[in-house]
From TrEMBL:
PANTHER family linked: CARBOXYNORSPERMIDINE SYNTHASE
InterPro entries: NAD(P)-bd_dom_sf
Name by which UniProt lists this protein: Saccharopine dehydrogenase
Length: 341
């Protein structure tokens, strides 16, 4: 497909992976990389999300779609795309920033496709729930369990988010009421698939909590995670119990959460409960979370470019019908999905 795609934050771990996957699947597209420093080619653009005067090059290059893979806390890029009628996909926002951006966008007239895709692994959890449910309105409870390996190749943004927010409360939802909780508390045993086995999983904040309850109206929503190391999982919970995170500096918390390996599997599992029973969706990315997040972003943009969606605000799962998301994910050689009734 002939189109001009701009990846802002394209020099980061996920941004580079988006560029690689998109180029391999869409050979006619022109891919531009936006970053704070001068690159080596004409497709490398100086764009700093904190400096809106650098955005003029977006107009000059006639960009069709912007993929935002760096956190734009002040929503400068979102303001720009709304004003200039450019399609936009954001995969980076933690829950508080997503809520703020969504509220901002709702107050404006939208003349392009604005897609918020900041849920877990590029916003595919809600999509899979929607595809494997007879009706999302019949779901009484959705629980997401995340397996994270410290050996996985991870970008800076996730570590920075944990460092900033680990001591702050966030919300899960019970009977449509927000319940204040904190990371790494309330252990729950969960048997993970793909040979991982039973692990203690702890509270974890991802935007899916907000999206599934506030947007899709599922009354009970929770997210829990475990690390590949049982000792690290226990230790992080112990730190929370003794309130160590409250007295550590941001720099010290970054050291705790800033480790990144060379690559490992990433796994998440969704348990859906209705009045008629339960269903488990299990997904494994053998090349890790950066690959899966990047692929999700690519799939969302491909759908935007191939289909005539009207100009308005979307969450990424709104772009899919029938089993198209599952089929696209399952066709990728490093992704494995299992459904258990």
């Amino acid at each position: 497909m002939k189109s001009n795609i701009l990846i802002i934050g394209g020099n980061g771990t996920v941004g580079k992976t988006i560029a690689r996957i998109f180029a391999s699947r869409n050979t006619q597209a022109a891919i531009f990389i936006g970053g704070r420093k001068q690159g080596k080619t004409g497709n490398d653009l100086i764009i700093d999300v904190t400096k809106p005067h650098t955005f003029q090059v977006i107009i000059d290059k006639k960009i069709d779609v912007i993929i935002l893979s760096v956190n734009d806390k002040e929503d400068h890029v979102l303001r720009f795309v709304i004003e200039n009628k450019i399609d936009y996909l954001d995969i980076t926002k933690p829950t508080p920033d997503l809520v703020k951006a969504y509220d901002f966008a709702k107050k404006h007239t939208i003349n392009s496709r604005i897609v918020f895709s900041s849920g877990w692994m590029g916003g595919i959890v809600s999509g899979l729930i929607n595809e494997f449910s007879d009706s999302i309105n019949d779901i009484d409870e959705a629980k997401l369990f995340v397996y994270y390996s410290v050996k996985d190749l991870a970008g800076e943004s996730s570590a920075h988010f944990m460092a900033e927010n680990v001591a702050k409360p966030f919300f899960k939802y019970q009977n449509n009421k927000p319940v204040s909780i904190k990371h790494f508390l309330d252990a729950e045993p969960f048997r993970f698939s793909f040979g991982i086995g039973t692990r203690q999983a702890y509270n974890f904040d991802v935007p899916d909590l907000y999206i599934l309850n506030q947007i899709e109206k599922i009354p009970n929503v929770s997210v829990k995670m475990t690390y590949n190391s049982k000792f690290i999982t226990w230790l992080l919970g112990a730190f929370q119990k003794i309130r160590l995170y409250n007295i550590l500096s941001l720099k010290e918390r970054k050291i705790i959460f800033g480790s990144s390996g060379n690559g490992d599997q990433s796994v998440f599992e969704i348990v859906i409960k209705t009045h008629e029973g339960s269903k488990k969706i299990s997904l494994q990315s053998t090349k890790g979370q950066a690959e899966l997040t990047a692929l999700s972003a690519v799939l969302h943009v491909e759908h935007l470019l191939k289909n005539s969606y009207e100009n308005k605000i979307y969450f990424s799962h709104h772009l899919y019908q029938n089993s198209s998301l599952f089929q696209s994910l399952n066709a990728y050689e490093t992704i494995h999905i299992k459904i258990t009734e």
